[in-house]
């Protein structure tokens, strides 16, 4: 179980790791503890699987990538094959089965539109794919997963 | 634009972050550059928005957020900006996009909701509907996670 200290640490470290020489010492100050205990606890939380990764969150558009959300209607018995074919693409970051007629939803990042078209055409022609909707964003208002642990 | 060193830094920063007292010194050494150069470039990326934030990504199921729903809404074009700005302030919504509608799929606005249970997700969506006056929406609950990774930029 997460201790009170863990929760405070996780709440802060989701957004606030600084680009300074001793980032964990700065965190420790805010938490009124030592640098060593912050590091030790982070190792533990990482090992236990509470933390997936530590690092920067990049803005894909500003790095030159083009993103989209794709919804598929896939015949039930073909779902596993279609899902794993989609997973094999490098730029697919999220792929979820969802309730409803459109039962598979994935996000795709591509270096350019031509590459995106090429990938989507290949997926559209997979066995079991009834319908593919490409739903590119017209406006991005927010991209920030942040959990408040209490 | 990004130069070769920028790309090498971005690739390296996607590796396991060293949990040591001076992590940037360790990363800089691997890149063969000074710690100051690395830190000044990283700060530059944050200033220009290439880096949105720096920190930890949690596994949401492990920290108790077991339910997630993608909510698709029909928003009149003239209200997209207003509603987008209003909901962006809401910490319970993690992703918020206006998207192209399709003839057989008229939804043009998407909110990603994470909560402890499905019921909580529904209550949150109802709250959004009440605050915005939007009537038409669908909740797309996930039943299986086939893939969820952080993008590995400049690695393919």
Q: What's the quick description here?
A:
The complex is a heterodimer of chains A (150) and B (156). By secondary structure, chain A is α+β, with helices and mostly antiparallel strands.
CA(first)-CA(last) distance of chain A: 13 Å
Separation, N- and C-terminal Cα atoms of chain B: 19 Å
Mean pLDDT of chain B: 92
What is the architecture of the largest domain in chain B at the second tier of CATH? Answer: 2-Layer Sandwich
CATH superfamily (homologous) name of the largest domain in chain A:
Lrp/AsnC effector binding domain/regulation of amino acid metabolism (RAM) domain
Oligomer: heterodimer
- Largest contact between chains: A-B, 77 and 77 residues
Q: What name does CATH use for the topology of the largest domain in chain B?
A: Alpha-Beta Plaits
Helix segment count of chain B? 5
Helix-residue proportion of chain A: 25-40%
Q: What spatial form of chain A do the alpha-carbon principal axes imply?
A: elongated
Can you describe what's shown?
The complex is a heterodimer of chains A (150) and B (156). Chain A contains five helices and six strands. Chain A is of the alpha+beta class. Chain A has two domains: 4-47; 66-135, Lrp/AsnC effector binding domain/regulation of amino acid metabolism (RAM) domain (Alpha-Beta Plaits, 2-Layer Sandwich), CATH 3.30.70.920. By secondary structure, chain B is α+β, with helices and mostly antiparallel strands. Chain B is built from five helices and five strands. Chain B has helices at residues 4-13, 23-31, 35-48, 80-88, 118-132; strands at 51-58, 67-73, 93-99, 109-115, 137-148. In chain B, α2 (23-31) crosses α3. β1 (51-58) of chain A pairs antiparallel with β1 of chain B.
Which key phrases capture this entry?
heterodimer; A: 150 residues; alpha+beta; Alpha-Beta Plaits; 2 domains; 5 helices; elongated; B: 156 residues; 5 strands
């Amino acid at each position: 179980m997460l201790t009170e200290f863990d929760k405070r640490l996780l709440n802060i470290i989701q957004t606030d790791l600084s680009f300074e020489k001793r980032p964990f010492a700065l965190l420790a100050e805010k938490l009124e503890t030592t640098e060593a205990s912050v590091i030790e606890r982070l190792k533990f939380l990482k090992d236990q699987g509470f933390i997936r990764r530590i690092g920067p969150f990049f803005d894909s558009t500003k790095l030159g990538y083009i993103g989209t959300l794709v919804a598929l209607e896939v015949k039930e018995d073909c779902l596993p094959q279609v899902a794993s074919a989609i997973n094999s693409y490098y730029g697919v970051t999220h792929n979820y089965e969802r309730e409803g007629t459109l039962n598979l939803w994935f996000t795709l990042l591509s270096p350019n539109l031509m590459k995106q078209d090429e990938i989507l055409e290949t997926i559209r022609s997979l066995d079991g794919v009834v319908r593919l909707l490409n739903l590119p964003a017209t406006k991005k208002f927010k991209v920030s997963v942040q959990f408040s642990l209490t | 634009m990004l130069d070769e060193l920028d790309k090498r830094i971005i690739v390296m920063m996607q590796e396991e972050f060293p949990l040591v007292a001076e992590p940037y010194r360790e990363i800089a050494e691997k890149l063969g550059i000074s710690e100051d150069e690395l830190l000044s470039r990283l700060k530059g990326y944050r200033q220009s928005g290439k880096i949105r934030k720096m920190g930890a990504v949690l596994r949401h199921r492990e920290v108790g957020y077991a339910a997630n729903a993608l909510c698709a809404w029909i928003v009149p074009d003239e209200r997209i900006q207003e509603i987008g700005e209003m909901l962006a302030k809401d910490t319970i919504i993690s992703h918020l996009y206006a998207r192209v509608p399709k003839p057989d799929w008229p939804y043009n606005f998407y909110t990603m909701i994470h909560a402890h249970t499905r019921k909580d997700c529904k209550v949150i969506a109802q709250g959004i509907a009440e605050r915005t006056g939007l009537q038409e929406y669908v909740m797309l609950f996930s039943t299986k996670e086939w893939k969820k990774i952080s993008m590995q930029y400049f690695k393919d």
